[in-house]
Amino acid sequence: MAFDLVFFGGTGDLTWRKLMPALFQAFRHGKLPPGGRILAVARDDRTDEQYRAFIQERFSEVDSSKRPSDEEFAQFAALLHYRRMDLSQPTDYQGLKAWLDERGAETVVLYLATSPHLFPVICEQLGAAGLNDSKVRVVLEKPLGHDLASAKEINRVVRSVFREEQAFRIDHYLGKPSVQNLMALRFGNALFEPLWRRESIANIQITLAEGLGVGTRGDFYDRTGALRDMIQNHALQLLTMIAMEPPSSSDADAIRDEKLKVLKSLKPFTATHISRDVVRGQYRAGTVDGKAVPGYLEEVKVPAGSACETFVAIRTEVQNWRWAGVPFYLRTGKRLAARDAQIVVNFRPVPHPIFAGGSRANKLIIKLQPEDGLELQLLAAKGNSHGESLTTVSLDLDFDKAFPSERVGAYERLLLDAIAGRLNLFVRSDEQEQAWRWVEPILDAWAQDSGDLKTYAAGSWGPPAASALVARDGFAWAEEE
């Protein structure tokens, strides 16, 4: 299948840090369809050869195991092209269309790896140039908007130019192998689905923890914050996949219909709920991996006295028959004790324990990063106790060992899906808007009052109030048990 893949923002960090390495891995694995061209567009004046040299230099910064040899890069570089474009000039879009029309590829994927405020003008210009026919797909990188109103405006413009099935709203967490295995775990195994409900599950915890701070991106992060950066998209997408009802098929819209129902069932926020069920924090100076690190307010480009949150913990519920009364805890933060993304499903203990230690409960841990796998914690009798005392044992599945061939990374999979036209792992506009609708009361409350901002030491697991949030229900975060 001949394809043309165009990156708007072709010299930006996202393109050379994530997208080009992912495409190279697809090329190395033999998964990139033959007959493809990859075009980067940006405002700089460069030739194809200069752009190829730019990418080869940047590849020296990726993990050594994923770095191409000179011979491999030469083969990959033959696919790379560059075109200068001013994104506000209609004539440049007409020139792009002429370049694409030269050979008439079966599929054209336009990846908007730019700032979201440029999405509307790019889409409008694409439509005016006729770059929106049925063979064209447009990929929209997050964040899609800053709030509900801006997200709706972006979607309005996108829908005025492209049909919904042409729009691929990307959330790279959905491309992670462990996240995809959530579907297989739930709907491909008879073992778990009968237990996947309030009668058997006590609580569910979703943690997206980062050990790094904001680095040199303080100005960008201060306009965004942890709620917009991680909760509104990544965490809520994970929650929908954990809580959704079984779809009628593996069709993209069947899956996304069920995810939307979860978002609509989330307990809405009132002022009382926000003060009680939401914790926001900001890291101060501390120690990470034995090294002293500055606090958020001392980071480069962070405004003095900023009240931007670098940590959020939320308690919520899915108000339907399956999940009524089961708390879902969402947590994300920068400069935490470890880089750790996982979902912990805490089952209820047996109703009448007859062994010592039998009041503890089973636990399923879905590991997203840095490891990729599943851990099921069970209770078993100690060998020297004649079956009278139980201890926790783990059934640990490492996907990298279970599937020894090199596995497909998140962006690699999503790029291949966009080329193939598979929408299953992309977010529909109504999902995205409903997620914004749910978090907006929190954003509004914070805009009016910054007095509830907690602080936490870099290298910790966040403010003590986050532990109290879970302890109030009689539970604890996984690392505190």
UniProtKB/TrEMBL annotation:
Sequence positions that bind NADP(+): 43, 86-87, 142
> Where in this chain does the record put each Glucose-6-phosphate dehydrogenase C-terminal domain?
183-477
Domain named Glucose-6-phosphate dehydrogenase NAD-binding: residues: 6-181
The yes or no answer to whether the keyword NADP is present is yes
- Show the active-site residues: 234 (proton acceptor)
Q: Which reaction does it catalyse?
A: D-glucose 6-phosphate + NADP(+) = 6-phospho-D-glucono-1,5-lactone + NADPH + H(+)
Q: Which keywords accompany this UniProt record?
A: Carbohydrate metabolism, Glucose metabolism, NADP, Oxidoreductase
Q: What role is this protein assigned?
A: Catalyzes the oxidation of glucose 6-phosphate to 6-phosphogluconolactone.
Family statement drawn from the similarity comment of this UniProt entry: Belongs to the glucose-6-phosphate dehydrogenase family.
The name on file for this protein is: Glucose-6-phosphate 1-dehydrogenase
